[in-house]
C-alpha cells in the first residue's frame, strides 16, 4: 500500500515546479524523504545545488566557466552563457552574451544542441557550428553569408533582424522551423526553402514574389508588414495557420485549407472570408470596421478582437462563436 502511495506522490510531482515539490516535502517527516526521489526539471544553478543531498536528481542545470565540480548523474541539459570563447565541455545549451562578437573557430564542443548568438555577434560561422546543433538562433546584428555554414543537423533556424543575405542552397533539408528577421528581403526561388520546412515566417520588410516558392509541407505561414505580393495559387494546400501583418489581405486568394487566420496590428479594412473554411480568426488592435455575419463562414467558431474594438457584434454571429 505504501509503495502504491509513493508511486502516486512521485507521479503527482511530475506536474509540479521544483519549488512546489520542495514545499510538498516540507509537509511532514514522511514526505521529506521524497526529496531524494523526485526528479527536478527547472533550470538550476549548479553552484547552488552542488551540496544538496539530492544533487544527482537535477536534469537541467546552468554551469559557469570557473565551475570545476561534478555534474548531476541524471543531467540531460547543461546551460551556459558565454562572454568569451572559453566554453566548458558537456554544454548542451549555449547562449553567447549580448556583447560577444569574436570568431568562434573550434571553440564549440560537439555536445551543443541549442546554440544562440547574442545581439552584437556578426562574424562568419563557416566551419564553426558542430553537427550536434539542432536549434540555431542568430542575434539582431548578424548579417554574414551562411553559404555552407548551417549543418544538416539543424531543425530549427532563426535569423535576426538585420540578416539580409541570399539563401539559395544554404538552408539544409533538415530544417522544419524557419524564421527570417525584419530586414530580410531577398528573392526566393523554387527550392531555396527546403521541402522539410513545416513552419515558415517572413519578416517585416519581406516583399518578394512567392509563386512556386512555398514548400508543400508548410502548415504555419506568416508574412510581414510590407508584404504586398499576389498569393493566388502560391500558398500550398498544406497551410492551415496563416498570418498577415500587412494592411492589405487578399481574402479571396486564401486557400481552403486554412483554418486559422491572424490579421496584424495595423490591419483596418472590411473582412470577407465567407467562402473559406476558417474556424479561428484573430484581428489586430487597429481594426475598426463592422463585423457582418454574412462575411464569415459557417465553420467559424472563434473570433479574437482587441480590447480597442467597440462596435456591436451581430447576435447571429455571436451565436456561432460564443459557446455555453
Could you characterize the architecture of this molecule?
It is a single chain. The protein is an alpha/beta fold and 324 residues long. It has a domain at 264-324. Helix content is 11%, strand content 15%. The protein contains five helices and 14 strands. The chain has helices spanning 2-13, 18-25, 29-32, 46-49, 315-321, and strands at residues 44-45, 60-62, 77-82, 93-96, 114-116, 135-137, 156-158, 177-179, 199-201, 220-223, 241-244, 260-263, 280-282, 302-304. It has a 14-stranded parallel beta sheet. Helix 4 links the parallel strand 1 (44-45) and strand 2. The chain is globular and about 65 Å long. The two termini are 43 Å apart.
The major beta sheet can be summarized as: 14 strands, parallel
Unreliably modeled segments: none
What is the helical fraction, as a range of percent? 10-25%
Task: State the separation between the terminal residues, measured CA to CA.
Answer: 43 Å
Strand arrangement in the largest pleated sheet: 1-2-3-4-5-6-7-8-9-10-11-12-13-14
Average pLDDT score: 92
Radius of gyration: 25 Å
Separate helix tally = 5
* Number of E-type strands: 14
How much of the sequence lies in strands comes to 5-15%
Q: Specify the overall morphology.
A: globular
Order of helices and strands: HHHEHEEEEEEEEEEEEEH
By secondary-structure content and strand pairing, the structural class works out as alpha/beta
Amino acid at each position: 500500500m505504501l509503495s502504491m502511495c509513493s508511486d502516486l506522490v512521485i507521479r503527482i510531482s511530475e506536474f509540479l515546479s521544483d519549488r512546489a515539490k520542495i514545499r510538498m516535502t516540507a509537509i511532514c517527516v514522511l514526505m521529506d524523504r521524497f526529496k531524494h526521489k523526485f526528479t527536478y526539471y527547472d533550470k538550476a544553478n549548479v553552484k547552488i545545488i552542488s551540496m544538496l543531498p539530492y544533487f544527482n536528481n537535477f536534469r537541467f542545470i546552468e554551469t559557469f566557466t570557473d565551475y570545476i565540480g561534478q555534474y548531476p548523474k541524471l543531467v540531460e541539459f547543461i546551460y551556459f552563457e558565454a562572454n568569451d570563447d572559453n566554453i566548458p565541455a558537456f554544454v548542451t545549451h549555449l547562449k553567447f552574451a549580448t556583447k560577444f562578437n569574436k570568431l568562434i573557430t573550434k571553440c564549440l564542443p560537439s555536445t551543443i544542441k541549442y546554440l544562440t548568438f547574442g545581439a552584437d555577434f556578426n562574424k562568419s560561422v563557416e566551419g564553426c557550428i558542430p553537427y550536434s546543433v539542432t536549434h540555431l538562433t542568430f542575434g539582431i546584428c548578424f548579417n554574414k553569408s551562411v553559404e555552407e555554414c548551417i549543418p544538416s543537423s539543424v531543425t530549427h533556424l532563426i535569423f535576426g533582424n538585420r540578416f539580409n543575405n541570399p539563401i539559395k542552397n544554404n538552408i539544409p533539408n533538415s530544417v522544419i522551423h524557419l524564421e527570417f528577421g525584419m530586414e530580410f528581403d531577398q528573392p526566393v526561388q523554387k527550392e531555396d526553402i527546403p521541402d522539410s520546412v513545416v513552419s515558415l515566417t517572413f519578416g517585416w520588410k519581406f516583399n518578394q514574389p512567392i509563386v512556386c516558392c512555398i514548400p508543400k509541407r508548410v502548415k504555419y505561414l506568416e508574412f510581414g508588414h510590407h508584404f504586398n505580393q499576389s498569393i493566388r495559387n502560391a500558398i500550398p494546400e498544406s497551410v492551415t495557420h496563416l498570418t498577415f501583418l500587412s494592411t492589405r489581405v487578399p481574402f479571396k486568394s486564401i486557400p481552403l485549407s486554412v483554418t486559422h487566420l491572424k490579421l496584424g496590428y495595423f490591419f483596418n479594412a472590411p473582412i470577407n472570408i465567407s467562402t473559406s473554411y476558417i474556424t479561428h480568426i484573430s484581428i489586430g488592435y487597429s481594426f475598426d470596421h463592422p463585423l457582418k455575419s454574412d462575411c464569415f463562414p459557417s465553420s467559424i467558431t472563434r473570433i479574437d478582437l482587441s480590447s480597442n474594438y467597440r462596435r456591436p457584434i451581430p447576435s447571429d454571429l455571436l451565436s456561432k462563436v460564443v459557446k455555453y
